[in-house]
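INTERNAL AUDIT FORM
Audit reference: QA-55
Scope: verify that the stored structure record matches its stored sequence.
Auditor: D.O.
Record contents follow.
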Amino acid sequence: MSLCSTKFKTKETLLLDSTRPIGNPVNTDLGRPKNTSAGVLSSWYALRATYSRELKVQAQLNAMGVRTFVPMMWKRVEKDAREVKKLVPAVSNLCFVYWTKHHIDEYIRGFGGNSPVNYYWDRTAGRALTVPEKAMEDFIKIASTMDEDIIYLTEISSKLHEGQTVKVKEGPFKGVEGKIVRIRKSRRILVELPGMLAVATTYVAAEDLEII
């Protein structure tokens, strides 16, 4: 079955009840660049979902064999007069997709004027925003821990850019490269997705870092 035929058979589920359970929303497959059947290299694209349908978009694309990532976090909510933790998207309406632009364009066009997603736009370059492979891998590695002390930043001050660039040598963030920052009185490593947002690790010991 082609991607197009799968798309048209399933698109209605996205246009209906956006609160319907969709199963496990977390996909932490880092993957590596690979050629599609057409010989075109896939890239990480950031898509903006409407009406908080990022998990439904992810579920549909995963079912089509497309690699995706939606950063998730634990949120404390009240339920039956007690506090419980609920897994929710860390950034509203955001879904990262590893695919070719041709296929994403085709996917979006398949919904006519009712597409549940559109591109984040790189206004400087005048094109759909793509995320560098290494930055995306590091972002996924940090976000996938879903530690409650992970911090997401949608606005990054110039002061945070001044930190030294390092690589983590040991621990759960081994291999991650980013800037040393101090947030909430804790030494962390900041990984930025240019033009979008950044994520900061939990505390990292100085001896686990090397300057690059």
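Auditor finding: record pair retrieved intact. The helical segments are 3-10, 12-15, 54-63, 101-109, 133-143.
Action required: none
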